[in-house]
C-alpha cells in the first residue's frame, strides 16, 4: 500500500476499514466506529474503525506468526526498511504535518518539526539495528567459555498518546522492529489518523505483513486487557498519565510482562541570578510552548532568582503576549488549540486557583473568536507554593513563576514532587549549573537549553515519571533479551 496522504485519510475510512491486522486493512470485528474531531473547529473529521478485543487477539496471532521470520531476517535488511521509512517520511513531511494539525491542532510549524523528529527515530534505529552484537570470552576461572547473545524479546504492544501522534509511535516502533520484534500499536483515539499514515509508509518501505498491526479504538481497556492477558505478548510500552500507568503495571505484572513506562512530568525551570536572561527567555519559550505546552517535558514550574525576577517576568511576558493563537494551518499562528474542551477547562481551573491564592497575571495573549478549544498564552507571577498549578501537570500554555534566594531551599521545593521526568537550569556558571543539575531528581536536565528530546539520547524519568528509557542505545536494549551460554568442548593434548 502506498502513502494515501491527508486528502484520503481525512475524508473516509481506508478501502476496507482502518484496522491493520496481518497486513490487511479491515473494519472492526463488530463494525463499530468512533469520531475524530478537529480541535480548531470542534467539527467532525470522520468516523474511524474502533477495534475490539477480538481484533486485539487477531493482531497478536498475526504478530506471532510473523515473529520467527523477522527474527531470522538479517539486521542489514531490517535496517534498510527502517531507513526507507525515514526517507519516505521526509518526502511526505507537508502531508503528515497537515494531518497532525487536523487531528491534534498544534501549529503547522510544530507539526512539521514533529514529523522531522519522528522520522529521525527510523534513521537512528536503522543504524542501531546492525550493531546488536554478542560477546565471547574465557571464564575467569578457566576451563570453559562465556557466550552472551542478544535476542528479540518477542511480540510487543504499544499504547501512544495524542500530543505527538507521529513521534510517540515511531519512538517505539523503530527500536522494536530494529531489534527483530513484531509490533501491536493502539494510538490515542483523539489522533489515530497519523498512526495509520505511518503504517502505510512502513508498508511502502517494504515491511512484511504482520509486523506492524495498528488498532485504533475508543475502547482501550478492552484491547489492552486482551493484550496483557495473552502470554504471547512479552513487551509492553506505554506513554501517558501516571495514574493510568499504575493500573497498567498491575495488569502487566500478572504475566510478568517486560514494561517501559513514560509517565507524567512536573518539570522545574530554574533561572539563576547569573543567567543570560534573554537566552533563558528563549529557552523558556521552547520548553513551555513547544506543542502548545501539551508536552510531558514542558517546563511546569519556574523558579527565578529574586534578583532577576522582574527582568525575566517582563521579557517572558512580552514573548508570551506576542504569541499568535489560532487554527494551526493559518499563516503566522504559533499556538494552536488545545486537544479538547476538557483540557481547556482544566488549565483554566489551575489558573483560577492560583489567582485565588494570591498569584497575578503578568501577561496574557488573546484567542480567536468563534469555535475551537483555545487557551491564551499566560504568565502568572508570585505563584504561592500551595497553588495547585505547582503540583499538577499543567499541560497547557501557562507559565507559573515563583522566586527564590537560597539554592538549597529552591532545590527542596523543586524536588518536592512524585515526578522526575525533566528539569531545566540556566546559569552562566557551568559549575553551578552542573551542581544544581546533579541534585535535581530528574531523568533529563537541560542546561542553558530549552529543547531536550533527541533520538540519539535516552529519554525517560525517575520516581513516578516512569520506568526504562526510549531513544539512544538504551532504546533498542529495551527490546532485547540477554542469553548466556556456558560453552565447553573436548580438547586434545
Overview of the molecule:
There is one protein chain. This protein is of the alpha/beta class and 493 residues long. The protein has 15 helices and 22 strands. The strands form 6 sheets. A 7-stranded mixed sheet has the order 14-15-16-13-12-18-19, with helices on both faces. α6 links the parallel β7 and β8.
Give unreliable regions as ranges: none
Q: What shape does the CA trace take?
A: globular
Distance between the termini: 62 Å
Residues in β-strands, percent: 15-25%
Query: What's the Cα radius of gyration?
Result: 24 Å
Summed over residues and divided by their number, the pLDDT gives a mean of 96
Beta strand count: 22
- Give the fraction of residues assigned to helices: 25-40%
What class would the helix/strand composition place it in? alpha/beta
How does the major sheet shape up? 7 strands, mixed
Separate helix tally = 15
Strand order of the largest sheet: 14-15-16-13-12-18-19
Which short descriptors sum up this protein?
six-stranded mixed β-sheet; globular; alpha/beta; seven-stranded mixed β-sheet
Amino acid at each position: 500500500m502506498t502513502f494515501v496522504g491527508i486528502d484520503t485519510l481525512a475524508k473516509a475510512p481506508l478501502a476496507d476499514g482502518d484496522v491493520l491486522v496481518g497486513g490487511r486493512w479491515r473494519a472492526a470485528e463488530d463494525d463499530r466506529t468512533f469520531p475524530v474531531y478537529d480541535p480548531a473547529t470542534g467539527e467532525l473529521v470522520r468516523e474511524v474503525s474502533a477495534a475490539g478485543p477480538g481484533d486485539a487477539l487477531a493482531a497478536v496471532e498475526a504478530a506471532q506468526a510473523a515473529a520467527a521470520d523477522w527474527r531470522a531476517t538479517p539486521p542489514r535488511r531490517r535496517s534498510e526498511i527502517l531507513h526507507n521509512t525515514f526517507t519516505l517520511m521526509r518526502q511526505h513531511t507537508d502531508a503528515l504535518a497537515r494531518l497532525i494539525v487536523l487531528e491534534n491542532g498544534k501549529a503547522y510549524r510544530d507539526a512539521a518539526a514533529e514529523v522531522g523528529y519522528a522520522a529521525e527515530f527510523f534513521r537512528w534505529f536503522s543504524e542501531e539495528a546492525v550493531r546488536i552484537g554478542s560477546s565471547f570470552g574465557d571464564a575467569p576461572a578457566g576451563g570453559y567459555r562465556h557466550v552472551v547473545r542478544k535476542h528479540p524479546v518477542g511480540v510487543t504492544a504499544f499504547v501512544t498518546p495524542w500530543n505527538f501522534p507521529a513521534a510517540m509511535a515511531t519512538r517505539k516502533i523503530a527500536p522494536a522492529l530494529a531489534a527483530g520484534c513484531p509490533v501491536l500499536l493502539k494510538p490515542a483515539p483523539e489522533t489515530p489518523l497519523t498512526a495509520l499514515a505511518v503504517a502505510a509508509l512502513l508498508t511502502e518501505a517494504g515491511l512484511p505483513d504482520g509486523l506492524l498491526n495498528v488498532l485504533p479504538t475508543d475502547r482501550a481497556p478492552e484491547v489492552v486487557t486482551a493484550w496483557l492477558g495473552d502470554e504471547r505478548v512479552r513487551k509492553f510500552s506505554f506513554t501517558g498519565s501516571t495514574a493510568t500507568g499504575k493500573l497498567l503495571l498491575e495488569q502487566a505484572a500478572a504475566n510478568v510482562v517486560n514494561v517501559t513506562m513514560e509517565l507524567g512530568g512536573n518539570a522545574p525551570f530554574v533561572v539563576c541570578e547569573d543567567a543570560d536572561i534573554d537566552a533563558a527567555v528563549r529557552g523558556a519559550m521552547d520548553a513551555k510552548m513547544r506543542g502548545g505546552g501539551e508536552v510531558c517535558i514542558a517546563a511546569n514550574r519556574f523558579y527565578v532568582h529574586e534578583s532577576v525576577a522582574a527582568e525575566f517576568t517582563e521579557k517572558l511576558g512580552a514573548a508570551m503576549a506576542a504569541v499568535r493563537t489560532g487554527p494551526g494551518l493559518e499563516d503566522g499562528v504559533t499556538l494552536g488549540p488545545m486537544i479538547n474542551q476538557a483540557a481547556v477547562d482544566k488549565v483554566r481551573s489551575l489558573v483560577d486557583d492560583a489567582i485565588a491564592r494570591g498569584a497575578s497575571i503578568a501577561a496574557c495573549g488573546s484567542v480567536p473568536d468563534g469555535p475551537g478549544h483555545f487557551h491564551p498564552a499566560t504568565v502568572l507571577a508570585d505563584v504561592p507554593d500551595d497553588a495547585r498549578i505547582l503540583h499538577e501537570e499543567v499541560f497547557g500554555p501557562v507559565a507559573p513563576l515563583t522566586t527564590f534566594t537560597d539554592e538549597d531551599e529552591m532545590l527542596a521545593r523543586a524536588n518536592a514532587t512524585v515526578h522526575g521526568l525533566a528539569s531545566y537550569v540556566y546559569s552562566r556558571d557551568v559549575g553551578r549549573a552542573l551542581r544544581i543539575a546533579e541534585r535535581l531528581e530528574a531523568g533529563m536536565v537541560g542546561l542553558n537549553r530549552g529543547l531536550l528530546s533527541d533520538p540519539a539520547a535516552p529519554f525517560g524519568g525517575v520516581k513516578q515519571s516512569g520506568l526504562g528509557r526510549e531513544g539512544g542505545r538504551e532504546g533498542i536494549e529495551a527490546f532485547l533479551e540477554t542469553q548466556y551460554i556456558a560453552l565447553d568442548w573436548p580438547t586434545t593434548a
